[in-house]
Design goal:
267 residues; alpha+beta; globular; binds 2-amino-4-trifluoromethylsulfanyl-butyric acid; binds cobalt (II) ion
C-alpha cells in the first residue's frame, strides 16, 4: 500500500496515509483521555472546549470543527437526549448526565475523528446500559470491517445488535470517509444489509460512529441548525473511531493509549 489512488471516487491511502492517521488519531484519543478528569458535576461544556483548544494548540494540531460550515467550537458536546452536534455552552453538567464528546484533530493535514461517552458522577442504570450497548455496537461494526465485506456488513452488525438489545439506530447521521479531508466518501450507514453498499478495499479510511437511542430512532435538529435531539427526548449515546481497512481486517487509529476507550475509565 504505497500508492494513493481512487477507487470509484473513494481514496485508497497508502502507508503514508496510515502513518499520518496513526498520529492524528492517537492525538485525538489523547484529547478524549484528558476529558476523563475534567468531566464532573459543575463543569461547563465551554470549559471542556477551552481545554481541548489549548491541548490542540500545545500539540500543533487544529480542531477540524473550528470554522467548519460556521461552527465555532473545538468539540461537540451532546448531553442526554442530544444525539450529536451539541454546541458547547455556559450550562454546567449535572450529576447523572451522560455526555458525548466528539473531537477531530488535524495533525500534518491528517484528520483523527473520535468520540466517547462520559458519565457525570453516578449515572442511572439505564444510562449505563445504553453506553454499554452503544460501545458494543461500535465494536461489532468495526469487527465487520474487512476486504470483501461491504459497508452494509458494518451497518447490519450494528443494527442487528442494537435492535436485539431493544434500542434503536439513528438514521439521519452516518460515518464517513476521512484522511486528508474531514468528510469524504464513502458514507458508513449504521444500519443495513450484508452485501449492500460499497465493497471494502485495503486502504480505505473512514469513521464508524453509531448513535443509539433508548427510545425511538426519530431525531430533529434544533433552530440553532446544529443540535440534533431525540424527538421523544429519551437518552441517546454515541461512540466513534477512525479506522483504516487492511488486508486482514482493519486498524483502529483512535484507540486510547490509557485504556480509556469506554467508561468507567478505570484504565
Ligand atoms: N466530528 C463530527 C463527526 O463525527 C462532525 C462534527 S461537525 C461539527 O463527523 F461541525 F458539528 F462540528
Ligand atoms: Co465523524
Ligand atoms: Co466525530
Amino acid at each position: 500500500m504505497n500508492s494513493k489512488h481512487k477507487e470509484r471516487g473513494i481514496t485508497l491511502y497508502g502507508e503514508e496515509g496510515f502513518a499520518g492517521m496513526r498520529k492524528a488519531g492517537s492525538l485525538a484519543a489523547a484529547a478524549l483521555d484528558l476529558m476523563v478528569e475534567h468531566v464532573k458535576p459543575g463543569v461547563t461544556t465551554d470549559e471542556l472546549d477551552d481545554i481541548i483548544m489549548d491541548f490542540a494548540k500545545a500539540n500543533d494540531a487544529i480542531p477540524a470543527t473550528l470554522n467548519y460550515r460556521g461552527y465555532t467550537k473545538a468539540i461537540c458536546t451532546s448531553v442526554n437526549h442530544v444525539v450529536c452536534h451539541g454546541i458547547p455552552g455556559p450550562k454546567p453538567l449535572r450529576e447523572g448526565d451522560i455526555v458525548n464528546i466528539d473531537v477531530t484533530l488535524i495533525v500534518d493535514g491528517w484528520h483523527g475523528d473520535t468520540s466517547r461517552m462520559y458519565g457525570v458522577g453516578e449515572i442511572p442504570r439505564k444510562a449505563e446500559r445504553l453506553l454499554d450497548v452503544t460501545y458494543e455496537a461500535l465494536m461489532r461494526g468495526i469487527a465487520a470491517v474487512k476486504p470483501g465485506h461491504t459497508t452494509g456488513h458494518i451497518g447490519a452488525a450494528i443494527q442487528n445488535f442494537a435492535e436485539a438489545e431493544r434500542c434503536s439506530v439513528v438514521r439521519e447521521f452516518c460515518g464517513h470517509g476521512l484522511g486528508r479531508q474531514f468528510h469524504e466518501r464513502p458514507n458508513i450507514l449504521h444500519y443495513g444489509v450484508e452485501g449492500e453498499g460499497v465493497e471494502l478495499k485495503p486502504g480505505m479510511i473512514f469513521t464508524i460512529e453509531p448513535m443509539i437511542n433508548i427510545g425511538k430512532a426519530a431525531v430533529k435538529v434544533l433552530p440553532d441548525g446544529w443540535t440534533a435531539v431525540t424527538r421523544d427526548r429519551q437518552l441517546s449515546a454515541q461512540f466513534e473511531h477512525s479506522v483504516g481497512v487492511t488486508e486482514e481486517g482493519c486498524e483502529i487509529f483512535t484507540r486510547s493509549l490509557k485504556g480509556y476507550d469506554r467508561p468507567p475509565y478505570l484504565g
